[in-house]
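2024-03-11 09:14:02 DEBUG pipeline.ingest accepted 1 chain
2024-03-11 09:14:02 DEBUG pipeline.ingest length=355
2024-03-11 09:14:03 DEBUG pipeline.predict start
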Amino acid sequence: MDREMESRRVMEGVKAAHDGMQAAPRKKFRKPQTKAFDYEELAEGVRSGSRLHLGKAITLLESSNPDHKQHGQELLNRLLPFTGNSIRIGITGVPGAGKSTFIEIFGEMLTNLGHRVAVLAIDPSSSITGGSILGDKTRMESLARNPKAFIRPSPTAGTLGGVHKKTRETMLLCEAAGYDVILVETVGVGQSETLVRGMVDLFLLLVLTGAGDELQGMKKGILELADAIVVHKADSHNTDLANKTVREYKQILHFLQQATEGWKTQALPASSLERTGISEIWAMVKDFEDTVKKSGYWKIRRQNQTKDWFRSMITDELLSRFFDDQARREKVKMLEQKVLQDDLTVSQAISNLFE
């Protein structure tokens, strides 16, 4: 009897709990609200010189997410009135020339003079994995800690010539953030140098002391891109050889077309190790700026850069839209196989594709 009563009480308790659950109103699921993108906050942060906000803005521009791309372009549009007030310097050099060491010493000198320096280091991305080294902050530890400097490694992501397609926009963001000297470091002597030449005011080529075979192997086209040639590692034990190399380059420059209208390409010795010749390079840069601005070519070059940027973006957009179509991608693969099997010539395949 006791067991029967206990069982009845348990069942009544279960039923009461169930009825209570049924009576309780169901909570409606609410989709979390998406916070509106705050352009003003990020733009103000960039304008105030915050490296954190500048990094966020650059990441937004580099993102492949469509929403992020739209936000990035709107942000850039708001900041455009505050851009253009810097000198943009491209820096390249043969392997082992000491580009990173030179940039660090050069950048530190500029910050000591009161300038704010941004370093955009074009980083090689792997053609197999898509990964990049992104080691510039470890190579320029002292400059990376400098509050007046900003270092941004920029992966190439397979872009033609090794230059990330957002480098130009990153330069504008850095200018809006108050950086008045922009240094663009390239991976080495090659096709990327031509593209960087098209986005900077002055192009500087670092070479080693003791020209010899290096002069013979140096492409004429690279020398014709340079507004200044710095014979680097002109250390005390190497001074005579460095001065000899400078004279040899000056002789060669007489026979080459000048890179900038109204400016004679300079050749100078320098040692980052002993910090000699660095201030002379900056004096040369200022002389270049004064000379080219007086001639009116500074404005023309900037306009040409914008025009080239516009046209290159057209090409990028056409390629992107072309390969976005699944059916077109399938047709490309099919025609590619026909070309590989010698069923079609390349020209026939292209005609077929665009019909």
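2024-03-11 09:14:41 DEBUG pipeline.report The chain has two domains: 83-296, 308-354.
2024-03-11 09:14:41 DEBUG pipeline.predict end
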